[in-house]
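1st attempt posting a full record on here, be nice pls
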Amino acid sequence: MSPRNTSHLKGLLDAGSPAIGIQLRFGSPGIAEMAGLAGFDWLLLDTEHAPQSPAGVQAQLQAIGCTKATPIVRLGHNDPAQIRLYLDMGAAGIAVAFIETAQDAKIGADACRYPPRGTRGWGPHRAAGYGLDPEGYTSRANDEILFLPIIESATAIDNIDDIMAVDGVDSCIVGPVDLCYSLGIPFEFNHPDYLRALDRVCKAALRAGKVAGVPLLGDVTDKESVDRQVEQGARLLLVGGDESGLVDAFKGMLQPLAHLQDPS
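the predicted structure (as tokens):
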């Protein structure tokens, strides 16, 4: 049997249901397994901004296999060889940074699919149960594997309709910080230009018959605000990471005892 989890996120997106994810950078199989067991729908393994190795990613994929969460690997380059490697390990999808045109999106989407739909070379490793399920995996892969362009530039926003219309683009992930920098408004997540950009992404996804992956604005504990944004089209939701989560947890543990510590 090949690894589980390959269709959970796909099923949510196809149904138009929100899918809640978290980004992981520490490369810890234990943290990855814990995040999956905690109930996240999808886990984004960040190889772009963190020193993760292929062997470390595979260990996390194995840990995530004990949960229902869907593992997506984030790449810094639109490299078909890297895409093939991580899919052969059992990643259920690929997210690629700085996709700016429909041509960029097609290269990545095609690299995720076997011919005739795409250009992926055959040779699944863990993905096909180490050879125990090659035919079953191959028959499912083109329909279940996800390609998610990361939208993080003004150029990408200008081309968003063409990007979202590409066959094989399932949704997208907006990179809010880089997008704001590209728009000339660093870290101004309430700026009208940034809000308009998010709106353009949601509408482009809707026109393409797909769902949008955009950051939630404001306090995620504000149920009315979150529900309103989901109604406007937000579905693929990335709500934090292992770094920020652990920082908040450690600060929360120390805060009640801060008066006992030497301020120097």
